[in-house]
C-alpha cells in the first residue's frame, strides 16, 4: 500500500487576526473567545486527506504575528506548498498588512508557494465592501504579477473556513506535483548524463561498427556536458551552514555578535526560537562560500525548532558557560541530540564561553573529559570570551574550514563519476583505433 504524501500549509498574518481560531474551527469545529497568542510556531496534522484522489497527511503550521517572531516564521515557511494570509475584516487597518505578507512569502518562501487571502471575523462589523476588496485584489495582481483568491470567513459561525482550507489543499497539492515533476525531469537529465559517461567508460570492448569519428563525437558531447557543469559550479558559491546550540545563558548570541559585529552587550535578550545571519563571499582555502549561521534557543520548549534548524548542517558549535559549574554536564546530552538529528558527517566544535569571568574549568581537564564523551566525530575545544574577543576568530575560522572540508568530502563521491582519467581515454581510443584499423598515437 502506498504511503500518504506530505503537504505543508502555513497560516500567517498579523497578531490577533484570528489565525489560531481559524485552524481550531477547521480541525475541531470548536470556537473559543479566549485564545492565547501563538508563541513562535505551532503545528497540527490533518491525516488521510483525499486531494484529487491521492491521500495526503497535511501539516498545518500556525505562526505568531508579532515582529519579534519574524525569523521563526521565515524558517517555518521553508518547503511550504501553500499559505493562508489572514486579516481581520472588523479592523479597518488590518488589510493594509496583507501586501507586506505577500512580499514576505514571495521573497522568503518557496518559489512556487500558493497564496490564499483569508478575511476573518466576518460575524463582527465588517469594515470592507466587496468593491473595496475587488479593487485591492486588482492592485495586488498588478504589483505581484499573480492572482490571489480571497475567502471571507468566521471562526464563530464556521462560514467559509472549509472552502478556504480545501482550496489551500488543492493548490498546494498541485504545486507539489509541479515541483516533483520538475525534480524528476532534472533527475532524468542527470541520469541520462551519467549513463552517457558510464557508457564511455564501459566501452573497453567496442563493437566493430564503431568508428573513430563516432567515438570522438561521443567524447565531444561528454566533455561539453562536463564543461557546462564545471562552469556552473565556478559561477555559484558553495554554501555552508553552521548552527549554534547549547543551554540557555551559555552565551551563544554574544559569541555570534562578537564575531559578526565585534561588539559586546552585557545584557542580551534570550533567543526566541531561532535566528540566523548570512555571510556572502567568504574565501576558504581559495574557494568562495556563502555561509549561514543559525543561533538557536536553549530552552526545552523550543527544542523542536532547534531540531528543525539542524537540517543540512555542516558544523555545530556547542557552547557551554565556563563560569557555570553546572553548564558542562549538559554537553553529552547535546552531542546525543546532534547525532540523532543531523547527518552522520556533521562536525562538532565544543566552545567554552565567558572566559573573562572566574572559571570552574581548566583546559587540560576539559580535554581529558572530552575524550570520555560518546561522539562519532572528533571534538575540538575552544575557550572564548565575547567581551575580550579571546578565541572568537579562531573558533569561527576553524568552523569554516571544517565545514568546507566536510562539504568537499560529501561532493567527492558525486564528482568522481564525472571524471574520466586521461590514461583510460587514451587506452580506450587506442583500442577503438586498432579494431577499426586506425593508427594509434
Automatic annotation (TrEMBL):
Keywords: Nucleotide-binding. It comes from the Eukaryota. Signal peptide: none annotated. The keyword Cytoplasm does not apply. It holds the Pfam family Ras. The keyword Ribonucleoprotein does not apply. GO terms for molecular function: GTP binding; GTPase activity. PANTHER family: PTHR47978. This is Uncharacterized protein.
Amino acid at each position: 500500500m502506498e504511503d500518504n504524501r506530505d503537504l505543508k500549509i502555513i497560516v500567517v498574518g498579523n497578531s490577533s487576526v484570528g489565525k489560531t481560531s481559524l485552524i481550531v474551527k477547521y480541525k475541531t469545529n470548536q470556537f473559543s473567545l479566549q485564545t492565547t497568542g501563538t508563541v513562535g510556531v505551532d503545528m497540527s496534522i490533518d491525516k488521510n486527506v483525499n486531494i484529487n484522489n491521492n491521500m495526503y497527511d497535511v501539516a498545518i503550521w500556525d505562526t505568531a504575528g508579532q515582529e519579534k517572531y519574524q525569523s521563526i516564521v521565515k524558517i517555518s515557511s521553508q518547503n511550504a506548498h501553500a499559505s493562508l494570509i489572514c486579516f481581520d475584516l472588523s479592523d479597518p487597518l488590518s488589510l493594509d498588512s496583507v501586501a507586506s505578507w505577500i512580499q514576505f512569502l514571495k521573497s522568503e518562501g518557496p518559489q512556487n508557494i500558493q497564496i490564499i487571502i483569508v478575511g476573518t471575523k466576518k460575524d463582527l462589523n465588517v469594515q470592507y465592501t466587496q468593491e473595496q476588496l475587488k479593487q485591492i485584489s486588482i492592485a495586488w495582481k498588478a504589483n505581484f504579477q499573480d492572482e490571489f483568491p480571497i475567502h471571507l470567513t468566521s471562526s464563530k459561525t464556521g462560514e467559509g473556513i472549509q472552502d478556504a482550507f480545501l482550496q489551500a489543499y488543492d493548490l498546494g497539492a498541485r504545486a507539489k506535483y509541479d515541483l516533483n515533476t520538475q525534480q524528476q525531469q532534472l533527475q532524468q537529465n542527470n541520469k541520462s548524463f551519467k549513463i552517457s559517461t558510464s557508457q564511455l567508460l564501459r566501452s573497453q570492448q567496442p563493437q566493430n561498427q564503431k568508428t573513430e569519428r563516432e567515438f570522438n563525437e561521443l567524447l565531444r558531447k561528454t566533455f561539453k556536458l562536463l564543461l557546462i557543469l564545471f562552469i556552473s559550479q565556478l559561477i555559484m558559491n558553495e554554501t555552508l551552514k553552521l548552527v549554534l546550540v547549547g543551554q540557555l545563558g551559555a552565551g551563544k548570541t554574544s559569541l555570534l555578535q562578537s564575531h559578526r559585529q565585534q561588539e559586546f552587550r552585557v545584557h542580551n535578550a534570550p533567543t526566541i526560537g531561532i535566528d540566523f545571519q548570512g555571510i556572502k563571499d567568504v574565501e576558504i582555502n581559495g574557494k568562495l562560500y556563502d555561509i549561514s549561521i543559525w543561533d538557536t534557543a536553549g530552552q526545552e520548549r523550543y527544542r523542536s525548532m532547534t531540531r528543525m534548524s539542524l537540517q543540512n548542517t555542516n558544523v555545530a558549535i556547542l557552547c557551554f558557560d565556563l563560569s557555570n559549574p553546572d553548564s558542562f554536564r549538559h554537553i553529552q546530552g547535546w552531542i546525543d541530540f546532534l547525532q540523532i538529528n543531523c547527518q552522520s558527517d556533521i562536525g562538532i566544535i565544543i566552545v567554552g564561553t565567558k572566559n573573562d569571568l572566574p572559571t570552574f574549568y581548566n583546559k587540560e581537564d576539559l580535554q581529558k573529559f572530552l575524550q570520555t564523551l560518546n561522539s562519532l566525530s572528533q571534538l575540538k575545544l575552544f575557550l572564548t570570551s565575547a567581551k575580550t574577543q579571546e578565541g572568537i576568530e579562531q573558533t569561527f575560522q576553524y568552523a569554516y574550514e571544517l565545514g568546507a572540508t566536510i562539504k568537499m568530502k560529501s561532493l567527492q563521491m558525486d564528482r568522481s563519476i564525472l571524471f574520466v582519467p586521461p590514461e583510460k581515454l587514451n587506452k580506450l581510443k587506442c583500442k577503438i583505433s586498432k579494431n577499426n584499423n586506425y593508427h594509434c598515437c
